[in-house]
Amino acid sequence: MGASAAGLSAAQCKEERRIGLNECKPVLYGKLPSPSCCERVRVSHIECVCPVITPKLAALIDVNRAIRLIEGCGRRVPRHFKCGSITTP
């Protein structure tokens, strides 16, 4: 009932996104990711993140920079992966 593939509820996904955004907010201002930001990148469920990547949000995201952040934190990003309105190169 509204749970994602990982078995998380909509409320759990919302909380996961809130925590991740708070931990990684300095990255939006050009800072390097902190250890706590990288931890969030590694443990966040893709099923919680991708559905909120709308065309409007996708237009604000530098895909290559996002990939560098994710991979720099130790999480692989597959080529040609569709995440919301973004497809990786």
UniProtKB/TrEMBL annotation:
It comes from the Eukaryota. InterPro entries: Bifun_inhib/LTP/seed_sf, Bifunc_inhib/LTP/seed_store. Coiled coil: none annotated. Residues 8-83 form the Bifunctional inhibitor/plant lipid transfer protein/seed storage helical domain. Transmembrane segments: none annotated. Pfam families: LTP_2. This is Bifunctional inhibitor/plant lipid transfer protein/seed storage helical domain-containing protein. It comes from Citrus sinensis.
